[in-house]
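Sequence of NAD(P)-binding protein (Penicillium daleae).
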Amino acid sequence: MANVVRKVSIIGATGTLGSRIASALKVAGHDVTAVQRKDSTKPVPEGLKSFKVDYQNKEELVSTFTGQDVVISAVPFPILDSERIIIDACIAASIKRFIPSEFTTMLESPLAINLPIAKEKVLIRQYLSSVMPDSSSPTTWTSVNNGAFLEMALQYGVLGPNPMAKKAVFHDGGDKKIAVSLLSDIATAIVKLMETDSTFKAAANQPVYICSAAITERRLTELVSEVTGIDFGTPEQVSVKELIAQSDERLKQGDKSAIINYYFQMMYGDGYMGGDFMKFNWNERLGLRIMSEEELKSTIQQILCN
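Predicted 3D structure, token representation.
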């Protein structure tokens, strides 16, 4: 079956993930437009059209989105107040599909709304469900949910091994499997979702979970040690429950740098369903591979040693 060519507008197309999504869609043959703020001076990925608009002006957004098939939000920290205007404009412009800026580990637990790092994304999902009640709606949504960004996790040492500090940190023992994703695989998943009408339709009004691999912090530390030769010594053991209690206090004192710690609650906390990631997984349906350990070692080599 021939691939379907779609007209796609991307908000956040100059960002770390958005630029990869935009380029992947362009390479796949889609007609891609970067929608930027009027005051933006950032260059868009090569070969993309650019349209500058006031994100708070619904009429301008409707005019921009009219004739488009898909609108993707890839802004790094979405909030409902801003995204609601974009969503309403998508509906008014009769686009076929809106993809919100979720791109996070697990939002299926009702407890996710309690997490500072996930609350706005949950509220946006709830709003989408209220204005696009079923898959027969003219405009539908699909969220793409992925494992922790593997490139960042390895480079900054947040999921077990920290190559820069030459130490390792294990959360709740380090033996719980977590999903991890390469940025390129997230972009490929979005391309796959648009390849055929049947896949596009199947993903209407639901989350799509994908990952590049599933691995424990302990095993990831071992693999990084094998690839780099770093001896990480005795890992520091961190209780997620205690970490979150400390983070709550830091936030009360205005220390917003603590927000990153709530990802560990999402992945490991009781009731947050982080361990259920693979139950929702679409890799097989989309024809996406899950890396073997040898492939993972090769990826670690590319990220840390090149």
